[in-house]
Amino acid sequence: MGYKFDYFTHSYDTDIHRKLPDLLITLFKTISMVLGCKNYNPEISIINFYPAIGGELPRSKCAGLCGHQDIYESNLQNPLISISFGQPCIYLLGDDTKENEPIGFNYYQFLSLGMYFTNGDIMIMQSEARTAFHAVPIVFCGTKFQNTSQITENNETKEDIDVINYLNNFRVNINVRQMF
User: Can you tell me where the transmembrane regions are (predicted)?
Assistant: First the structure.
């Protein structure tokens, strides 16, 4: 949502812009105000979907988001704000250099700080963290939300049931950033 990102050229097409939903703008502006970023203008939102996995994943594979930087916006001074929903994950954060080639078991050795994110967690990348390499190598399966057999008793809709079933098997991350 917002400016369209071209993953092949690693650039935004500023001619294509779709306004973010008002609810999303209000939510992320409120979070930024708590940080003291009074002029934060959410212009871009990227929504990532990750399947949860069971069992062990070979270390040479990437179940979620492989190591990368988010450095393509014109304004890197403002924070990148992220909210996670659904299944938990491991989030790895490094610095702004990637000295080692991502090969086999060493793939994530350039990422030094590991964090465990669960449903509803908010992460803010600002200052040095804004240009740091980061990754989501694994999404765990195990968190189960409301038992869908009980939902009909609570007057939940089919759409509610679909969302709960989806979040029982996936992680969704919504992140917002300012372009200019």
Answer: none
